[in-house]
Amino acid sequence: MPMNPSKSTMPTTYLRAPPPVASLPVRGSEKRLPVNRLFFVGRNYHAHAVEMGRPVDKSAERPFYFTKSPSTLVESGATVAYPPETENYHFEMELVVAIGKPGFRVQPSDAPALIYGYACGLDMTRRDLQLAARDKGRPWDLGKDVEASSVVSEIVPHPGPVISRGELALTVGGQPRQKSDIDKLIWSVPELIADLSLFYHLQPGDLIFAGTPEGVGAVQPGDRIDGRIEGVGEIVLHVGAAA
Ligand code: MN
Known about the structure:
By secondary structure, the chain is mainly beta.
C-alpha cells in the first residue's frame, strides 16, 4: 500500500502553542465542559424587542441568531476591562443552554435529549456599534463579538424536563435593572434547539444564549453586575477600567 503523505503517524506539531480550549466549570464535577460554539438568540422577549424598536410577531417570524467567538468566553467572577470604541456598553442577562449530544434537524419533542445543562449568561454588547450597524444593514460583529463579552456561570447539569419557568433577574451595584421569567421566552428552549438545528449540526459543547428580557442598560468602569436565574444559579461580573 502506498503511504498517504497526509496521514502521517507522526504527532502533530505546531509553530507555537495553540490557543487554550475554551471551557467552563461544571457543578458537582472536577471536570470542565469544553466549549465549542457560542450561539445567541436575538429578540426573544417581547418587552425587550419593543425597547429595541423591533417588535416580534411569532406567527410571521422565525428566531434569528448571531454568534461570538469562543475566545470571548469569560467565567463568572471575572473583572473585565471596559472595552474600546464604545460609549454605551450594555448588560444582557440570559439563560444559557449547554448542548450535550449531537443533533441535526431535530423535532422540538426530541430537543430535550440534546440538553446537558444550563447556566447564567451575560451577553455584553457595544450597543452604540450594534445599533449603528443594524441601521446601516451591516453585520453586528463589532457590537457583539467583543473581547471578554460572553460571561457564563458554572454549568449546571440538568437531565429530565426542560426548564420552562423561573425568575431571571439582574442588578447593577445592587440596583434592580432586569427582572423577568423564563416562561416569557417567545421561542421556548425546545423550539430554539429545533430551529437552530435546521442550520447547524449541533455539537456537544455548543452554548445557546436564549435572549435577554427588557431593562438592558449601560455599565461604567467600577460597576458590579449580579445576575441570577431561579433553579439555575448566579453570575457576577466586575467592570474594570478602560483597556
Ligand atoms: Mn443577547
